[in-house]
Amino acid sequence: MKKSIIYVSIAILIGILIYQFVYNRTVPLVPINPNPSDTLSFDKSGGFIALRSGEFDARQNYKIAFQFKTANDGLIMTMGGSTVIAPASPYIIVYIQGGILRFIHNGPSGGVALLSSPNVILNNRWHDVAIDKSNNSFSMKIDGVESKYTTVTDPIQNSPIYIGNRPTKEDFPIGTGFIGCLKGITFNDKTNLSYDTIGKVSKSCL
User: Fold this and answer.
1) In what order do the strands lie in the sheet with 74-80?
2) Residue 14 has what pLDDT?
3) By CB neighbour count within 10 A (0-12 exposed, 13-18 middle, 19+ buried), where does 103 fall?
4) In the chain, what's the furthest Cα-to-Cα distance?
5) Residue pLDDT, tens place only, 21-71
6) Angle 87-92-96 (CA atoms, 0-180°, nearest 5)?
7) Is there a smaller number of Cβ atoms within 10 Å at the N or the C end of the chain?
8) CB 62 within 8 A of CB 167
């Protein structure tokens, strides 16, 4: 009986290897209840992760860190409401548009911090990102290159933060979800986060 199980397992493994060799493809990833700090893969199906309200406190100083690789524009993460309907609701958003990584913090009273990457980053290679708010100073470091912005802005009240996409995005500057890979996501250096997965988010990266 044990030998039969071993033979079947070997046959399945050989079948997978033949499939990969003949079609030059990998077996599709199976969604596995991922953690935001894992290596995650997002595709055009629009799946995303929703961190529950209170997991990320943006009312005072905060830190966001992650790594990503992609060849497409798209929404990486967002927290808060509308960005274009006046008066705009407070929000934080990180997204790629025109090949440039952009971060916006818009406070309730209209104070806005805007930071952008100096170069196009759609090369499907891993990039390190660290965003930091300290009082009225904002910084975004990408692969060790730092840009800074100083403005008076109000704190943003706690609300869910969405990673990879969001339930509604018609009022945001980028209308497509993230397609690519994210890993090492932390908020205020916290990795043990409460979250929900909506749609397909795969644990690994092609």
Assistant:
1) 112-116, 100-106, 91-97, 74-80, 161-163, 48-51, 195-198
2) 45
3) buried
4) 71
5) 333 333 333 334 556 668 899 998 889 998 877 777 777 789 999 999 999
6) 110
7) N
8) no
